[in-house]
Amino acid sequence: MKTYYLGREQVQGYLRDFAARLLQLRPRPTVWCPMTESGDGLLQALLEVVSESYPALLEGVQVLPIEVNDGGDAVYFVDGRPEEILPGQVVLLFDGAVHSGRMMGRCATEMLRHAPAELCSYSLVIKRGSTFIPTLWGVMIDETDRAYFLLDEIPNNRLDAGARRAQPLVHLQKLRGEMRERPAILSGVPSIDRMTWDDRFFQMQTSTSGACTYVLERGQQMVGFLTLHFSDGDSLSIDEIVVAEAQRSEGYGGVLLRFAETMARQAECRSIRLNAHEDRIPVYEGFNYGPIPGRGVLQLEAERYQPMEKAVLYHQKLTH
After folding, report:
1. How far apart are the C-alpha atoms of 33 and 90, rounded to whole Å?
2. Among 83, 107, 303, 313, which is 20 to 30 Å from 130 by CA?
């Protein structure tokens, strides 16, 4: 996995090339339609470049922003009446990044419904496997890469409990031999609690799938742990995720789940899978896990588990 940070200078370089190519189009786009928040950010950067170097491009241009709802299945125009603005016009549809291509494809379909004369499209970043390839683009990246652009600050990776919580002062350690004598962290689930640190360390030594237990510590106190392995080339499996019963209001479960996502992303996995204890299903649903199609409830003695998974996303919300 590669992460691309496109600063203002790089973005302006791509946009200068884009603007020069727009000048060559006949006819030129007269309606500019930025898509969503990242498209709005790109519009502001494009206006800076065009105003300075290619002011003729702005003559007679209208801006008609387009949005997509959270589910990605509904397209709407923010300002104006598209049935009055788009017919017979040359339209430019653009976004900061195209991932699957589904959103840009839907926006293009909606625009064409209003009978423009021509449709031109652009994205600063496009993923290689996109189902929609725009007319022009800046950078093409692999499926498991991610890109940020026009950030005020470059973000650090972190064991973050989430934007609404204070950062917990924690760290993770791989389970080591000398840690086997430390007190157990009890989950309240019998099948997990009867395993010892010794059992987990032995599993790490003998596993052919790379099973590994990471212990979450705050200072010298063990507050939780996570055991995971790579089940195949495309999936990371969480075998155990436990937070000490007395520590469950501190956000440590979120820390462990986000660490698992980071590990999956670094290994270029497509999904993360786990078997959720029936009492914890709503918790995992809150982290966007859903039932695995075709997999029923699993029974272990008196315990019931639902197989669940989530897709690993290789893009973040692009900030501008």
Report:
1. 11
2. 83
